[in-house]
Design a protein that fits this description.
Number of strands: 0
Structural class: mainly alpha
Helix content: 55-70%
Shape: globular
Length: 321
């Protein structure tokens, strides 16, 4: 289900992942994606510039505020609701995500079929909803009304896209939608003041990824892949996208869960094989360093054209913490 989070913020995170997925050249260190010129502004929006402790505190504070808003809303609609407090870590445990490391790639490939923490059993303590007893005390019709008040009515089939996704609307998502909307009002990225800037950032990411500035380094990587027997990819990201699409098709056609499915295992083996060749070619061509250098230069141009707006956005985000 799609969320209402600004697309530009999601694009920043996606870019960081894309950059870290490109291995550094054998002869030198590639820039750290965290040093992306535009990321230094955007990180303030989601707390990327905070320490892990500060991020955890922010997560808990926002969760508490959201749950209190839900409780107020439910009470106004005639229902009891105990705020659900989540004070667990917002960061999942498990091995580090390290697609730069050959040993990591040999085990996980692109991290799609297999990935760190995949076999983690998760929390051992059973979570109990503090509202469970109250809900069970209601009649069946009252329970239905309760859940619709909390999260909105069921999604009509005719509102689902072909891929069965749904454009989330806070106005039809009950008290949770109301609380989420209220929380977003404090985020400068969703305010009317910065709407033109956020749209400009979104357009920038699209144009940057389609820019012919990357043609030369993509051509070098593409030639290396063809020499290794893996032709047919226009750009480095296409290799990973191939398995994303293949996995989507696999899960769409799955009618029941098959443990240790040989078909899924075979996809994972091919993923690792291709990811290792991709890693070799990125290292041979110095792909990560070249890509980052070009990307950073494009960002600097954008910043020069929107310096005042970006400074104001960063200041507003830091002030709202």
């Amino acid at each position: 289900m799609r969320s209402t989070a600004p697309l530009a913020i999601a694009a920043v995170a996606a870019l960081a992942v894309a950059l870290t997925a490109c291995s550094g050249p054998g002869g030198g260190e590639a820039p750290d994606p965290a040093d992306s010129p535009l990321n230094k502004y955007m990180a303030a929006l989601w707390g990327g510039d905070l320490s892990e402790k500060e991020q955890q505190e922010r997560f808990e504070k926002e969760n508490t505020q959201r749950e209190e808003l839900i409780a107020e809303c439910m009470s106004e609609e005639g229902f009891e609701y105990i705020p659900v407090v989540h004070n667990g870590s917002m960061v999942s445990s498990g091995d580090e995500w390290d697609p730069e490391d050959r040993e990591w790639v040999a085990q996980y490939g692109y991290g799609m079929v297999n990935f760190p923490g995949r076999d983690d059993p998760g929390p051992t303590e059973e979570w109990i909803d503090p509202n469970q007893d109250y809900v069970m005390s209601l009649s069946e019709s009252e329970q239905q009304a309760y859940y619709e008040t909390l999260s909105g009515p069921p999604i009509p089939d005719d509102q689902l896209d072909e891929d069965e996704s749904y454009e989330w609307n806070w106005e039809t998502s009950g008290c949770y939608g109301y609380a989420q909307h209220e929380m977003e009002q404090d985020n400068p990225a969703t305010s009317d003041e910065f709407e033109p800037l956020m749209k400009a950032i979104e357009e920038f990411w699209t144009q940057a990824q389609e820019s012919n500035a990357f043609d030369e380094i993509n051509a070098e990587w593409r030639s290396c892949m063809a020499d290794a027997g893996h032709a047919g990819y226009d750009a480095q990201g296409d290799a990973q996208m191939q398995f994303s699409e293949e996995l989507n098709e696999y899960y769409e056609n799955q009618t029941e869960w098959v443990e240790d499915d040989p078909e899924l295992a075979e996809i994972g083996e091919r993923e690792v094989e291709l990811a290792l060749v991709d890693l070799d070619c990125r290292e041979k061509t110095g792909y990560r360093a070249a890509h980052s250098e070009i990307q950073f230069a494009l960002e600097e141009e954008f910043i020069a054209d929107h310096q005042a707006e970006l400074d104001a956005l960063k200041a507003a985000a830091e002030q709202g913490r």
